[in-house]
Design a protein that fits this description.
Helix content is 63%, strand content 3%. It is mainly alpha-helical. The chain starts with a helix and ends in a 25-residue tail after the last helix. About 10% of the residues have low confidence.
Length: 129
Amino acid sequence: MPKFPIFLIGVVTLLLTAVATPVLADDKAPVTRSAEDCAREHQTCRADCETKHVDDEAKKAACLSVCSARYAACDANAAYQKARPWLEEKARQTKKFLEDLMKDLPGTGEGGATPAPETPPTPKTPKSI
């Protein structure tokens, strides 16, 4: 069996199983946030860092890096949630394409392996002129 379709099946499997972890609230229900919500939370976090660590630059830098990491995670999740329906549809289309492709390959269709011919064909002898 060729390795190329196996590679494609692996890619589709990754696409189908790759799911971003949504942000969870206290009741463990997924919370969908927009990019604007993330930006607002980031600004609030930065302001908190500025007020809490006025005299200590090292602590302020550490606090700001935590704010930036949280913002990046929140923004990436918001973008994923927005693109998720499109990604799921493309993954379904790709999976169907690969299933159809695998059915069309010799020896992999619904009928199982293609049987070998019982007797080899006899070569034709050229006619004399």
